[in-house]
Amino acid sequence: MTALGGAVIDAVPPGVKDWAVSLFGTADKLALLAGMALVIAVVAAAAGILELRRRFAGAAVFAVFGVVGLAAVLTRAQVTAAAVALPLLAAGIGIAVLLKLVRRLAAVDGAGQAGEGPARRGFFQVLGGTAAGVVVGGAVVAVWRGGAAGVNEVRRTLQLPKAKSPAPAIPAGADLGLAGVAPLVTPNPDFYRIDTALSVPVLDSREWKLKVTGLVEREVELTFDDLLAKPLVERHVTIACVSNEVGGGLIGNARWLGWPVRELLAMAGPRPEADMVLSRSADGFTASTPLEVLTDRRDALLAVGMNGEPLPLEHGFPVRMIVPGLYGYVSATKWLIELKVTRFADDVAYWTPRGWSERGPIKLSSRIDVPRNGASVPAGKVLVGGVAWAQHTGVGKVELRVDRGNWQPARLAPGISVDTWYQWELGVDLQPGEHEVQVRATDRRGTVQVEERRPVAPDGATGLHTIRLDVKT
Ligand SMILES: Nc1nc2c(c(=O)[nH]1)N[C@H]1C(S)=C(S)[C@@H](COP(=O)(O)O)O[C@H]1N2
Ligand SMILES: [Mo]
């Protein structure tokens, strides 16, 4: 079912996926699985009715399901024997149960007696037995999938080395501590999660390997221990999703521990004609990152740590990429296993043929966190606060305007670095009534946030975050 869901995720037109993400947010995966369960239940019921009318017609439906499931498994990047066997086994059991149930039901009909006939009892016995079997089978699969339990233990007991180059101290006053404004550093459990993986890939760090391939002087292979033995650096970096709507929450800031990607690439020696690195995940996802971004002085990292602990499984354990200034879909590959040095002309990443730009620098933007859109506030001075970001350039200025009036400069807190978001606040005087408040940021080069509203596809939304307030007397 996970494989089928994964195939559905890869196959649906981009518009549908955007719609699903916008509708269900980060619960999109749960919604997909629930939707699939519903469809399967309806089809199974239909198969039962079919089988009653015509022998083996319902069984054929189950067989088709098995084949579809198998086909879905074969499209996945990680094909295991168990994954292949499961849909066939499920279809086989489904057919056996169906035939048995229909036979019992026919016996009930044949007996022509309503009530407590033995035939009817038999029907419900088979039904109950099947339900029990499904529960037990589910438990067995859960335990067997408990590879995750072992890896969780490996992760829990992992001692990450200290950074040779620690994260620069957070400047005093960088966190304004304004209630309702996103904390300057996002705690791991609150960090947004976006990926195409229906079940989180479980990689054992003891078996993990990273290969550098493609247009290089020499291919390099790195184990997790090799990586931990390198001089690691720790940096705060804000990452964002290209699907983040203006004012949205698909952005977070964490302290990442890792080894600069440029050091690894230097070991491999990219050929002069290369201009892109295609990073690949264990689950087949790929991202295309300009080579220059990975070799310039910015801290593009092979990250192993997030806010002082090993990467959580859902954020890419054991190793992911973190690249300041680029949207996640073109840079932040989780469950990383390969870096292929190549050319934009020769290779395409996962999202490129699905309607997203092959390159994705994060757009300069800003967000109002308090008050919330639609809030009621008392008249007078209203404290407005939020975050702003201009990765790799730094925020120079944040301004607010009320009801399309003059732009008023907000108080901008010091940032941790140009690669992180900044907090800001401003008290604005508001008279009773309905008011609109807008925010805009300007980066340190003087570039002003784009006011024109544009959708997230193909390369990130633009527009001003706008809230409406109901100001009471
Ligand atoms: N393996 C894998 N890595 C991935 C993705 C994915 O689908 N699969 N999605 C990317 C996208 S679109 C984003 S925005 C970031 C999100 O990282 P996070 O879930 O840790 O916040 O991961 C990136 N890395
Ligand atoms: Mo993303």
List keywords for this structure.
Sulfite Oxidase, Chain A, domain 2, Immunoglobulin-like, 5-stranded antiparallel sheet, 10 helices, 19 strands, binds the ligand Nc1nc2c(c(=O)[nH]1)N[C@H]1C(S)=C(S)[C@@H](COP(=O)(O)O)O[C@H]1N2, binds molybdenum atom
Q: How does this model look, in words?
A:
The protein has 473 residues and is an alpha+beta fold. The protein has three domains: 2-149, no CATH class; 188-354, Oxidoreductase, molybdopterin-binding domain (Sulfite Oxidase, Chain A, domain 2, Alpha-Beta Complex), CATH 3.90.420; 365-472, Immunoglobulin-like, CATH 2.60.40.650. 32% of the residues lie in helices and 24% in strands. It has ten helices and 19 strands. The protein has helices at 2-11, 14-24, 28-53, 57-75, 81-111, 118-144, 147-157, 224-228, 261-268, 291-295, and strands spanning 209-214, 220-223, 233-240, 251-260, 276-281, 286-290, 301-306, 309-310, 320-322, 336-342, 365-370, 376-378, 380-389, 395-402, 408-409, 411-412, 422-430, 433-443, 466-472. The strands form four sheets. Strands 2-1-10-5-6 form a five-stranded mixed β-sheet. Helix 5 (81-111) packs antiparallel against helix 6 (118-144). The protein is globular, with a radius of gyration of 27 Å.
